[in-house]
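idk why but the lab printer keeps eating my pages so im just putting this in chat instead. protein + flavin-adenine dinucleotide:
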Amino acid sequence: MNSMRLFIQLRTKSSLLFQRTLYTENIQDLVSSGKPSIVWNADALHGLSKEQVEFRQNVRAFAEKELPEELVTKIDADGHWSDFRNFWKKMGEMGLLGITASAEYGGLEMTYFDHLIAMEELSRRAGGIALSYGAHSNLCVNQITLNGNEEQKNRFLPKLIDGSFVGSLAMSEAGSGSDVTSMKTKAVKPNANADYYVLNGSKFWITNGPEADVVFLYAKTSDKGITAFLIEKDMEGFSVGQVLDKLGMRGSPTSELLLEDVKVPEKNVVGKLDGGVYVLMSGLDMERLVLSGGPLGLMQAACEYAFNYAHERNQFGKPIGSFQLLQGKLADMYTKLSSSRAYLYNTARALDQYKSSVKTKPSGTSPFTKDCAAVILLLAETATQIGLDAIQILGGNGYTNDYPVGRIMRDAKLYEIGAGTSEIRRWLIGRELNKEYK
Ligand SMILES: Cc1cc2nc3c(=O)[nH]c(=O)nc-3n(C[C@H](O)[C@H](O)[C@H](O)COP(=O)(O)OP(=O)(O)OC[C@H]3O[C@@H](n4cnc5c(N)ncnc54)[C@H](O)[C@@H]3O)c2cc1C
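predcted complex ->
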C-alpha cells in the first residue's frame, strides 16, 4: 500500500468518531511564519481537527506536485488531457477516490467534510480535474456506496476506488435538464421472464462521459417511474456521442452518451424498480456539500493569486493593493471567501454528525437539506464574482490566458449551472422555508 495512503488512513480514522482535536497548537507558529493569513488562516479560524489539517496538507502537496500551473494551463487550452487515466491511478493510490466508501472495498471511511476538503484542494489547483473527481468519487462511488447491493459493491467499487475505472453519473438529457423527471431514455423488459432490460435513449453533458467505464444512469421504467442502472462501457449498443467543447472546466471531459438497444442485466439495477427518484434523493445533500468544495477551492485560488499580484504590481509608484478602491475589493473578496467557507464547513460538520447519529439507512432528507442547497447556491455565485474581481485586479493581464484568473472564473461559472442551476436551488430553498410556515 502506498505510504501516503496508509498515512492518510491512519491519521483520519479518528475523524469518523468525531474525536476532533481543534487545530490550535500550531497557530502561533503560523502567525509568525510570515505567510499571509489567506494561506494559513482557514484551518485555525474554522476549527478543523488536527487530522483534517494534515489531510488537507497531504492533498495539497499531492495536487501541487501532480498539477503544476503550466500543465493546468495547457490542459485548459487543449481541452483534453492524455494523461487523465494515469492521474486517476495516482489518485487511487492516494486513496482519494473512495473517501466515503467502506474499507472493505478499498475506501477510507472518512466523512463528507473530509471529502469536501479533498475537492477543495484539487479545485484550488485545477477546477476541471476536480469536477471530474467530484463526479467520480461522489456522484458515482458514493451513490453505489449508499444504494448498491453487496454484489454490485464487490463488482464495481474496488476498481473505481483504486483508479482502474473511471465513473460518472448520467441523468440529464438534451431535452430534460432542470426538469429531469421528464427524461425520455427508456428501459423495457422484453418479457416477464427476461432477466435483463433493453435501454434506448441518450444522455447529455455527462462529466467523464468520454472516459467512463461505469455509468450510474437513470432511465424511465414506467410512465412515472425512474430506475437507476449501472451501465458498463463494453455493453453492446452503448457509445460515446459528441464530446462537448466547453467555456470552462476544460480539464473535465464531458459528452453525450448514446444507448441503442443496450441489454442491461437485472443485476445491474440499483435500488428498487421505479425507485430511482429515491436513489437520486438519497445522495443529494452530500452531493451539494462535496461539490461545494469546488467553488471554495476556486475562490481560494483566485484570492491567493490576486492578493499576491496586488502587492507586486506597482502603478503611480506604489503597489496597486495600497489604493483604497483596490483595498476595498481585497477586503470584500476575503470576507466573501471566509464567510462562504464558514457556512460550508459548519453545514458539513452538522450533516456528518447527523448521519453518524441516525442509524437507519440514510435517506434523501436531512434537517439540513435547505442549507446544503443554500451552501452551493452561495458558493457557486460567490466564486464567479470572486473570479471576476480577480480578473479586475490583474487588469489587462487578467484578461489574457497567460494568467490563471480567467480560467478560474470560467470554471467557477459551471457551479451555477451543473448539478442544478441557481434558480432551481432558490426554488428549493424557498419551498423548504415555506413548508416550515404551513
Ligand atoms: C459542464 C457540465 C457538466 C455536467 N455534468 C453532468 C453530469 O455529470 N451528469 C448529468 O446528469 N448532468 C450533468 N450536467 C447537466 C446539468 O445538470 C444541467 O445542465 C442542469 O441541470 C441544467 O439543465 P439545462 O442545461 O437543461 O438547463 P434548463 O433546465 O433548460 O434551464 C435553462 C434556464 O432556465 C432556468 N429554469 C429552468 N426551469 C426553471 C424553473 N422552474 N424556474 C426558474 N428557472 C428555471 C434554469 O435555471 C436556467 O437558467 C452537466 C452540465 C454541464 C454544463
